[in-house]
Amino acid sequence: xxxxxxxxxxxxxxxxxxxxxxxxxxxxxxxxxxxxxxxxxxxxxxxxxxxxxxxxxxxxxxxxxxxxxxxxxxxxxxxxxxxxxxxxxxxxxxxxxxxxxxxxxxxxxxxxxxxxxxxxxxxxxxxxxxxxxxxxxxxxxxxxxxxxxxxxxxxxxxxxxxxxxxxxxxxxxxxxxxxxxxxxxxxxxxxxxxxxxxxxxxxxxxxxxxxxxxxxxxxxxxxxxxxxxxxxxxxxxxxxxxxxxxxxxxxxxxxxxxxxxxxxxxxxxxxxxxxxxxxxxxxxxxxxxxxxxxxxxxxxxxxxxxxxxxxxxxxxxxxxxxxxxxxxxxxxxxx
Length: 335
Hints:
Layout: E1 2-3, H1 15-27, H2 33-39, E2 43-48, E3 57-61, H3 66-75, E4 78-82, H4 87-99, E5 104-108, E6 125-132, E7 136-140, E8 148-152, H5 153-161, E9 172-176, H6 188-200, H7 208-218, H8 222-225, H9 229-241, H10 251-262, H11 268-297, H12 300-325
Antiparallel strand pairs: 1-6, 2-3, 4-9, 5-6, 5-9, 6-7, 7-8
């Protein structure tokens, strides 16, 4: 058995921030999950639907692995990414750093992981690996999946080689801090402004605040769109609240990030953004509740109520991001 020493196998709400937390704590940098999410400019929105999809998808974050790339670039971290179509090389890419005492991040399809509670394909799942033996690998996943877990090497190989939406070719990665520990506090404002700019100037109408407005227009059709409304609508709501989002489609995480920033930065626009995202987080949970009720009872009236809330959310989040975009390039920290 080969195990990396001094691993704090702490599962958090979201898979990518959980893995980043494991890798960075091993390097000596311990940041909260909201801070990791915010510094990685992780918040977004997408309304995704096509004829090939069984049901529409509401997404609340940037594409898988973009958060990791953003965070590494912002903090000056050395991010070494390996991809390959060879299973032999894929194993070597994770075994070598672990043999050298360094944990590894993996992007894979959670469907094949033996401990995973929900057997649905999701190719953008991220875990941290910190050990292996002849039969199993030792991973850190989200708290709801068990935190410190293990799965067979065979199942891991299938998860890593699966092809489909959001999958990667046996992607693995390591993170190394620079010689001088990064002053992450200096990157708070750039991270917020980057996220706000992307949200406000999204190139297509199903992204950002315009995407929320599009979701509002489409939502009342969901009972007719669904093959099995009693299953499909509650499942969509569950994904918004429980599937690694931290609640409220990642808005609770971003609210908490902005709240932490207010302990470091004194700015009225930041206070406005925090207040509006606190309001948005509550409303997103209300939307999920109404979608569940619509599926359970078949009453389109619940979807009409949710539609009205989504109209409000499009405005609230646009106003929040406009305020955050107005943050000065450099704001002095609180005394």
